[in-house]
């Protein structure tokens, strides 16, 4: 006797049915990225949204860098270490 179908429960990935088949959607614009029902439960982004996310993060990091220079004691060491690591990778 075969086991009954048990749907996966996703907390971060967006998986919907598309004409009877599963489809993984972009977390931002909801465009279909991949078909199927088994995907890693992380946020997934299409190419355009991934670029927008990177631009947003780089602008945010620049703002944080400015604040860190002004008052480094206000930020946890982990944030300062991450910014320094990113700066080293960029060089």
Note down, in words, how this protein is organized:
With 91 residues, the protein is of the alpha+beta class. The protein is built from two helices and three strands. It has a three-stranded antiparallel β-sheet with strand order 1-2-3, with no helix packed on it. A hairpin with a 2-residue loop joins β1 and β2. The longest helix is centred in the middle third of the chain and has 24 residues. The radius of gyration is 20 Å and the shape is elongated. The chain starts with 13 loop residues before the first strand and ends with a helix.
Strand order of the largest sheet: 1-2-3
Straight-line N-to-C gap? 60 Å
Report the total helices: 2
Strand content: 15-25%
Count of extended strands = 3
Helix content: 40-55%
| Biggest β-sheet description | 3 strands, antiparallel
Question: What is the alpha-carbon Rg in Å?
Answer: 20 Å
What pattern of helices and strands is seen along the backbone?
Answer: EEEHH
**Which secondary-structure class do the elements indicate?**
alpha+beta
The coarse silhouette is elongated
Mean pLDDT: 78
**Spans with pLDDT under 50 lasting ≥5 residues?**
none
SSE diagram, text form:
Blueprint: E1 14-18, E2 21-25, E3 32-35, H1 47-70, H2 77-90
Antiparallel strand pairs: 1-2, 2-3
Main attributes?
single chain, 91 residues, alpha+beta, 3 strands, 42% helix
Short characterization:
By secondary structure, this protein is α+β, with helices and mostly antiparallel strands. The chain contains 2 helices and 3 strands, in the order βββαα.
